[in-house]
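Researcher: Batch entry, complex prediction.
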Amino acid sequence: MTLSREQIAERVARDIPTGAYVNLGIGQPTRVATYLRPEQRVVLHTENGMLGMGPEAGGNDVDPDLINAGKVPVTESPGASYFHHADSFAMMRGGHLDVCVMGAFQVSASGDLANWHTGEAAAIPAVGGAMDLAIGAKDVFVMMALFAKDGAAKLVKECSYPLTGVACVSRVYTEHAVFHLTERGVVVTETFGTTLDELRARMDVPLLSPEA
Amino acid sequence: MIELCPDTDAAVRGITDGATVLIGGFGRAGMPFALIDAVLQAGPRELTVVNNNAGNGTTGLAALLAAGQVRKMICSFPRQSDSFVFDELYRAGKVELELVPQGTLAERIRAGGAGIGGFYTPTGVGTPLAAGKEVRRIDGRDYLLEHPIRADVALIRAHVADETGNLVYRKTARNFGPIMAAAATLTVAEVDRVVPTGRLDPEHVVTPGIFVDRVVVTEQEAVA
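Model: Structure tokens for the complex:
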């Protein structure tokens, strides 16, 4: 069976190292937080200026001064701290975050990331913290659908969309497979409801098995 | 010394046409709504505004844009579900956009306040936002030269001020406040309350009063 979006989030959560400082991008990556176990002791960073972000706030817990990067009201975890934007991005750019998880339009076999702009003339460009996260976090995990609506693979030899960062992605989690982008190439470490050969038939990127 | 202003009109007086204005806030958190409303009333035009976003809904920065007072936005994330005011102006060619990665925006403002003439950052290397920027290889890694942002005015929101202008913020509403306060010729802070000098624990002061010129107490806008 292919994985649902929730199952992809759950799969990513399992691979977050114990004690890691982690930034979860806006949108689907936010769902990863739901599946982090307390014993993983993960500390969540939100780039608008907080470490130790807790779950989304509801009801009386909603405080307009306490939001995440997606501008959703959130809560404090014990040990939380607040800081200004320059410090927050020093944590990101300075290599202090262990993992960030982002969505993507495309990822290249060499780890180039395209996730901020479709390149369409009518689109209003908005980049936010994506470029800082891409080059700053020690590990950049991408979670995305492996194929676009037209059937084209989104893990490609070269990105055709404008880049967010060069050679920065280390892993790609999709509904069909988990890909590790290594120096020897793209290694498929797990498949879900498909086989390595079936994926090879649908993708241009050379795919390696873990044993190879 | 700081000036404690009786109202927001007094707090924003003297902002001229063509001024560069840093406006604090990330989304609505930390946005100085009352000061922006006063700027709307005072009516300076041709402003260059620096904010992370480009307005939400129809209030605050969005209202300033809708009134046609903003010539240029310098921001990192203008496109949001409720940024229709900016979207329309941008598509009609009525407002200029300088798009800056969020961390670069923060560091350019920090540099402006700290007297730094420029800095090299790895953010944006190899992307369209590197166009026209000097690339420097340092210890085997490529960096882009970025320039500081200094402004005529900073409008920020803090939680508490003392009569010396020392500021304490609240939660994620701190965001750009401390770095913007330092990067402007005139820094105006709207706050929930002012306490006598000596009442804030010096260990807890986030923005020292040296960076603040005017303080005004305002009611925080109710959540929409």
